[in-house]
Design a protein that fits this description.
The chain is an alpha/beta fold. Helix content is 51%, strand content 10%. The protein folds into two domains: 25-191, Rossmann fold, CATH 3.40.50; 222-266. It has helices at 25-32, 35-39, 55-62, 65-68, 99-104, 117-126, 139-148, 162-174, 176-190, 196-210, 224-227, 230-266, and strands spanning 45-49, 74-78, 91-94, 108-113, 130-132, 152-154. The protein has a six-stranded parallel beta sheet, with helices on both faces. The N and C termini lie far apart (75 Å). The relative contact order is 0.11.
Length: 267
């Protein structure tokens, strides 16, 4: 999921940041949350974490808490803004949450996210289906990628109805295929041959011991016109022009022969 569209040169290696915990996740969550949140509030949990920097996006979601009242799940919402007027009893607004610990909680059923890369990796690692509400940059691609792989669905943060969102939340949780898909992908993601920190350490020590000349890409020494593939472009254009000229000359000769034949018949 993370390397499919990223062609790297020989001297570049991707060390994906796998989430990890220094203590059992539930213990960290209990240290942070009130006992009421853990024991009574989290029977079925929905985590919502969207950073709203755009005023219009912020307004669109701050007017939406009533829709969460129609959802039969408890909602923990990271909301570092002024709280809206009426907050349903099944919703907790918090300025900050330990996101990984919340995603790793066994009662977490769904993650509503703006689809930042780190958030997606964490949801993938902990096998939590997602509803994506991308805002900018790579988030739109990340949301479509998760939807393509069957890890969740995508909503336009500026254009959705209460019924659409409620159906999306309830349907995604009820449809076990989303959780099955992301659980399978999570197993692949966790089964890395080497942990990211170990992989980074190995390559650093490798370069210190052997140098990096054998990893140097030829593209670093290519002339600029080859690097930009202008020579290939010129060749393709010449072939295209030659093909057009040949077709044009052939048509001119055929038309000339036909015209001459018709003239001979008239004479």
């Amino acid at each position: 999921m993370c390397e499919e569209l990223n062609p790297f040169e020989p001297h570049c290696w991707l060390c994906t940041d796998l989430p990890h915990h220094s203590a059992p996740p539930q213990m960290q969550l209990k240290l942070w949350c009130s006992p009421d949140l853990i024991e009574n509030f989290c029977e079925h949990l929905l985590s919502l974490s969207i950073l709203l920097h755009r005023p219009r996006s912020r307004w669109r979601l701050t007017t939406s808490p009533p829709l969460l009242l129609q959802v039969k799940y408890s909602v923990v919402w990271r909301f570092p803004h002024d709280p809206p007027g009426d907050v349903p009893p099944n919703v907790r607004l918090l300025e900050w949450v330990p996101q990984q610990d919340l995603l790793s909680h066994p009662n977490t059923r769904l993650f509503i996210t703006h689809c930042g890369a780190n958030s997606q990796f964490e949801a993938l690692y902990h096998a939590v289906p997602m509803i994506g509400m991308p805002l900018f940059a790579e988030q739109h691609y990340n949301a479509r990628r998760a939807e393509y792989h069957g890890f969740g669905v995508t909503f336009n943060i500026l254009d959705f109805t209460v019924d659409q969102m409620v159906r999306g939340i309830n349907g995604l949780i009820a449809n076990t295929s989303y959780r099955d898909n992301i659980r399978k992908a999570s197993g692949v993601f966790r089964a890395a041959q080497m942990a990211p920190q170990d992989k980074a350490t190995w390559w650093i020590e490798h370069v210190i011991q052997h140098g990096g000349s054998h990893l140097r890409s030829y593209s670093l020494d290519m002339p600029w016109y080859q690097f930009l593939m202008l020579d290939v472009l010129v060749f393709v254009l010449l072939v295209a022009i030659l093909a057009v000229v040949v077709v044009w000359k052939t048509c001119a000769v055929v038309i000339g022969l036909v015209s001459q034949s018709n003239k001979t018949k008239r004479d």
